[in-house]
Amino acid sequence: MTDDEPAVIRIRGAEVRLAHKTVWRHVDLDVGPGQFVAILGPNGVGKSTLLKAVLGLVPLAAGTAEVLGLPAGSANHEIGYLPQRRSFDPSLRIRGVDIVRLGLDGDRWGIPLPGRASRDARRRVGELLELVGATAYATRPIGECSGGEQQRLLIAQALARRPRLLLLDEPLDSLDLPNQASVAALVARICRDEDVTVLIVAHDVNPILGYLDRVVYLGGGGAITGDPETVINSENLTRLYGAPIEVLRTSTGRIVVVGQPESPTYHPDLAHHHDHPHVGH
After folding, report:
1. C-alpha 87: how far from chain center
2. pTM > 0.70
3. Residues forming a β-bridge with 14
4. What confidence category does residue 114 fall into, taking pLDDT thresholds of 50, 70 and 90?
């Protein structure tokens, strides 16, 4: 992508500091319309923070961030956002269809508006349930739905207002492998068929690897961006972390990253952590 092409997200020289500690710096990122982009890296490197910076919820200490042609935070009405997975109490009686409806009118007090607005909302909710394959269980209490079913309903909620950009924070976390695969395929189909740009935080790249256009790999206070094959290799990650990192590819095509990210090349005001970079199991 060149500077002359339109960008859904354009970040230049970005730095974030939290509690006087640098989370990451010198981050550049271009995301084009309809692209499926993953933010990768071990725990504690600021993956969720990058999503929040895109939303304008975390200020930049340096650099610039434009989203949908405006400063970050100015176009959030055109962004769907699914935070890190929250568990629903099994006794919660609110129905799946009501969870999706909250994406349309959850910012209003009172009962849904009568008349045409209500009919339009019901039609949109029906479309969304069909889109994510949740029609069959939408009238069940959300607490009785499986983890994969709940995640489909929450994705439908995030899509309710027809966003141009969808931000997903570890939507595959805590799902079993079949559900990871089905939800990943669903997100990829939404990206392609609905022409929605997707930025997804992932701890394991493997379920989404075949769908990705670009990746952002965070670590060591910095980032590497590009296509997955170019970014996720031993040479790049060793340079990023300043320590030996090995990227292994199994006979089935899965990626495993092994090594220790902590090294003296970390900026001295970074908060240290002891997680191993982990892209695959």
Report:
1. 18
2. yes
3. 27
4. low
